[in-house]
Amino acid sequence: MDRGKKRKYTKRKNKKTTLIAFVQGIFAYEIRIRLISFKTLVAILVISAFYVVSSLYFYVLKDLPSPNQLAKYDPKQTTTIYDRKGNILYRIYSDEDRIIAKIEDIPQDVINATTAIEDQTFYTHKGISIRGITRAAKSTLLDKDLEGGSTITQQLVKNTLLTPERTWERKVKEAVVAIEVERRYSKSEILEMYLNRIPYGGTAYGIRAAAKRYFGKDLSELLLSEAAYLAGLPAAPSKYSPFIADKSIGKARQQEVLSRMYALGYISKTQLDEALNQDLTFQTQTEYIKAPHFVNYVISQLEQNYGQSLVKQGGLDVFTSLDPELQASLENIVSKNVENLQKYGTSNGASIITNPNTGEILAMVGSADYFDLKNDGNVNIATSLRQPGSSIKPVTYALALESGYTELSKIADTPIVYAIPGAKYKYAPVNYDGKFHGNVTLKNALGSSYNIPAVKLLDSLGVANLVEFAKKLGITTWTEPERYGLSLTLGAGEVTMIDMATVYGTFANLGYKKQVTGILKVYDSYGNVMEENSCVSFLDGAPSILTKRAIIETKATASTEQNPSNIKILGAKCERLKVISSATAYTIGNILSDNKARTPAFGPSSSLNVTSKEFAVKTGTTTSVRDNWAIGYSNDFVVVSWLGNNDNKPMKNIVSGYRGASEIWRQAVDYLIANRKVKDKLIKPDDIVEVDICELTGTLACKECNNGRMIFNKGLEPKIKCSESMIKKIVGNTEEKKEG
Fold this sequence. Notes:
By secondary structure, the protein is of the alpha+beta class. The chain has four domains: 28-62; 69-76 and 93-309, Orthogonal Bundle (Penicillin binding protein transpeptidase fold); 360-514 and 577-675, Beta-lactamase, CATH 3.40.710.10; 688-739, no CATH class. It contains 24 helices and 21 strands. A hairpin with a 6-residue loop joins strand 9 and strand 10. Helix 4 packs across helix 6. The chain is elongated.
C-alpha cells in the first residue's frame, strides 16, 4: 500500500436529503401535469364554446325571420270543423273581423289593462323579461311546459313571425327576434301591431273587432270594466269568453286585470270599485255555428293539444264524431222536456250520447237553448261541475265488488249516526223514502238506490280508496280528497257529464276505459294527419267526405307499401285501458238493468224500464232537488241526461224514474233503438258464470228457494244446493233471535 497518496473518500448521501429531493421531483412533475391539464381544459372549453355557438347558429339562429316582416303580415288560414258526415259545423276565422286601429285611437284604459295583465315591464324591458324567463325556466324544468314568460313583444313575434311548435329552439328564436324588434320599432308601434293582430276569440282579431263582438261598441265607447274584460281574453279566449264558458270565469279574469291595474297605479281605488261592481252587458252572438256547445268543446280540446295560435290560424281540417241526425233529435228532446217542466221550476237541461267502445261523442246538448243568454244558455253543462246525486253510487259498488263483495253480500239498512271529526254536528244518512229495510243484498241496495247501505259500504271501503278508484274509472274533478266524507257516495263530490260518460262507458265496455272525445281526425294545412281516434274505422261507416278520404289514403298507402300487411287500417289498433274486471263491470250492468231490483224504489213501470232492449240505467237527485240525472247504457251507447237550473235554484216535484232527466234519457234511448243498431242484450264476458241462487242460504238454488241468477267469477260460484232442512234451520234461528 502506498502510504504517500491521499486516500479518496466518496461522500455518502443522507437519507433525509434523498427523500426531500424525491418529493421535490414529484411535486415538479405534478406541476407540469397540472399546467398541461389546464391548457388542455382551456382548449376543450374553447372548442366546446365554438361548437355551442356554431350549433346555436346553424340549428336555431340561421334562418331567423326579419322583423321587417311585421310590416308585411299576411293573415293565416282558416280552420274548419266538420261533423262525422263532412258537413261544416264552424269555420274559425274564415272571415276575419279585423279593423285596424291606430295607437292614438286606442283608449289608454285598454293599453294599461293589456300591459298590466300581459307584460308589466313592457315599457322598461328590451324585448325579453328576466323575471319572465326565470318563471318560464322554472315551468320548463319542473313542469316540462315550454310556454310562459313571454313579453308582449315576444307574443307578437310568436303569433306573426314564428311557427307554433313548443320547443326550446323556438323560444330562443322568439327571444332573439324580440330584442331586434325592440331595436327597430318604438313601444307604441309594437303595441299597435300587437293590439291589432292578437286573437280575442271567435272571428274577432284585434281590439277593435273584439269591442264590436263582445260589447257592440267602438273603442272610444268602452268603459274601464269592459276594457279590462277584453284585455283578459287573449290568454285563453275559449276559457274566458262569455259565449263559451261560465261567465264567472271571465269575470274573475276581469277582476284580476283590474287588481293589477290598481296595484300598478293605473287606476284609483274608486275606479277599481266602480269597475268591479259594474254589470257587463254582452252583445248577442250571431255567428253561424251548428251544435255550438259541442263545437266550443272541440275547440277547447284542440287548443289544449296544439295551442291557440295553430288552431285559430293554422288552416286545420278537423273531423269530429258528431252525428248530425242524432244531434238534431237530442236538441229537440231536451228543449221540449225543459219547456214541459218549467212549471216545476226547471229552466235548463242537457244530454250527451257517446260510443263507449271508441269514446266518440255522438251528440252533445249543453243546454236547452245556447242562444238564451238570459238563462246562461251558452254555458255548457256537459263540461260544468254539478253534483251527481245517487248516479255516482255504481262507482262505490264497483269498488266493493273489486274488494271481495258479491251481489249476495248483506248490508244492514238500519239507523246509524257518524261523528264528524272536528265538527259539532253528526251525520245520520237517510233513505229516499225515509224508511229502513233491514238486511238487504248488495244487488237490491244498488238497484233500489238505498242511501244508508251505500254510506255503510263506503265506511268499510274508505273514502280515500273511493277517490282513487273513481279516478281510475274516469273522474277527473276529485282533486282534493281531504274535502270529502262519507256523503261522497251520495253525490257530494262535483263531477262533469263528460266524466260520467267515461265512467259508465267503462262499465259498458266491460272494464276497459276509453276517454271520451269529440275528435275523429285532424289534418294540417298540408294534408298531414296530426291526430286520429285509432278506435274508429271510417271505412265501415256511411259514405262521407271522411270515408272517401280514408279510402284514398288506404289506396295510396297500398300502392307504396311493399308489404300489404303493414298497411294501417284505422280501428285496427284501439288503445283502451283495463281498469276493472269484466265480472265487476258486467255485474254492475246486470244490477242496473234488472227492473225487479229497482222496483221497490221506482215501481215496475217507470221510464227506466226498457223492454225491447237491455239497458242498464241509474238516476240521481241531489239535496233540495238542484240536480236531476239519468245515466244509462247498452254496449253500443251511453246516454247521460241532466235537468236543473244554472243558478242552482231548487226544482219541485221532479221524481226520478217518472219525470225529469229520466224522460230525456228514455226518449233518447227510444230514438237510438228505432234508428240505430242496438244489441238486444248486454254482452256477457267469458270469465264469468251465472247461476241460480238462494239468497237465504247463500247457495245454489233449490226447489224451495230460488231468487234468480247471480254473477260470479269462474271458480268462485257456490258449489252446493240449498235444501228444505237448511232453509228451516236458518228460519228457525232467525225466529229464536226475534223472540230473544
